[in-house]
Design goal:
Blueprint lengths: L2 H14 L5 H8 L3 H13 L4 E4 L5 E4 L12 H14 L11 H10 L3 H10 L17 H10 L1 E8 L4 E14 L2 E8 L4 E6 L7 E6 L9 H5 L5 E7 L1 H8 L8 E3 L5 E7 L4 H11 L3 E5 L1 H15 L4
Antiparallel strand pairs: 1-2, 3-4, 3-7, 4-5, 5-6, 8-10, 8-11, 9-10
Helix pairs in contact: 2-3, 4-5
InterPro entries: CBASS_pafABC_assoc_protein, DeoR_HTH, HTH_11, WH-like_DNA-bd_sf, WH_DNA-bd_sf, WYL_dom
Keywords: Transcription, Transcription regulation
Protein name: Transcriptional regulator, DeoR family
Length: about 300
């Protein structure tokens, strides 16, 4: 095993232990205590502070420090992190304030010259590009902090239908398709709701806290308990290609041998308007086949649109 990889594994072991001894490290990695001492000197030379205590109950421990110590990444990890940081630069504003260009330069400065050269070359032929945000979401950072501290938030929210005052227990924030979104429990409705953060006109984080075990990871279980109905939608080959790009629809899509497809979609009533809007973008490449009442509702929606042109 290469020395750098061994150092990384020893550092990882140290971080998992409150206290440790040279003998424990030697046993864990099947090396001599003399070799352990040399590795500890190497780690200290890298700026990692290790405190040693002598005596019967002695041992060593890592000293907490505000800056992260150097981390031993391999070539693939450095390149992946570099381009991930670059992709983040397109998300504006990003809730965790940092200079992406400065972060990339720091990463390059601690990398081997061969890795630096490869990254410079890759920048000319490879890019992870996210479209620039056109709409600002200024309350994103405050909402994330409210999620972490489990504090109730309130503010004026302008949905596509109405403007209203909201009091919410925030669950989690995520970024998708150019927008920041919030899942939260609406205190008035006592139910989970979905909000676009840029639509908050004002926001206040109160000192009032709440108790909840909900997270973005287990939220799906709660949401899927809502009453839904099945929608069947036939797609042309072009409709299939576009729907495969939609991560909300793709899991419910079956592709036929002729490249056409079928969406068997569980839909909640509050999601009908969004679904109609999406189907409009597919035009003739999507046809609702069931239920009948939804087909009639969609046709009525089209008639309302036609009135704008008469």
């Amino acid at each position: 095993m290469k020395k750098n990889q061994r150092l990384y594994e020893i550092l990882w072991f140290m971080q998992q232990q409150k206290r440790f001894t040279a003998t424990e490290i030697a046993t864990r990695f099947d090396i001599s205590t003399r070799t352990v001492q040399r590795y500890i000197v190497d780690l200290e030379d890298m700026g990692i502070f290790i405190e040693a205590t002598k005596g019967k109950n002695g041992g060593m421990e890592l000293i907490s420090q505000p800056l992260l110590p150097p981390i031993l990444f391999n070539q693939e990890e450095v390149i992946s992190i570099f381009f991930a940081i670059h992709a983040i630069s397109y998300i504006k504003p990003f809730p965790f304030k940092f200079n992406t260009e400065q972060a990339k330069q720091k990463l390059l400065s601690i990398s081997h010259k061969q890795v630096q050269s490869q990254i410079i070359h890759l920048e000319q032929i490879f890019e992870i590009k996210i479209p620039d945000q056109k709409i600002s979401a200024p309350f994103t950072e405050e909402i994330i902090q409210a999620c972490l501290k489990k504090r109730i938030i309130s503010g004026m929210y302008h949905s596509s239908k109405k403007r209203s005052k909201k009091k919410l227990e925030p669950v989690g924030v995520y970024f998708q398709s150019d927008f920041w979104y919030l899942y939260a429990t609406d205190c008035e409705l006592e139910d989970i709701r979905h909000f676009r953060i840029d639509r908050f006109e004002s926001l206040e984080v109160s000192n009032e806290t709440f108790h909840s075990t909900l997270t973005l990871n287990n939220l799906a279980e709660k949401i899927t308990t809502k009453e839904t109905f099945q929608v069947g939608i036939h797609l042309s080959n072009i409709g299939v290609m576009r729907s495969l790009e939609n991560q909300l629809l793709a899991p419910y899509l079956t592709v036929n041998q002729d490249s056409s497809g079928y969406l068997d979609l569980p839909l909640a009533k509050e999601d009908i308007d969004y679904t109609f809007s999406y189907l409009m973008t597919l035009g003739k490449h999507a046809t609702i086949e069931k239920p009948e009442w939804l087909i009639n509702k969609f046709l009525a929606n089209l008639e309302d649109i036609k009135k704008n042109y008469t």
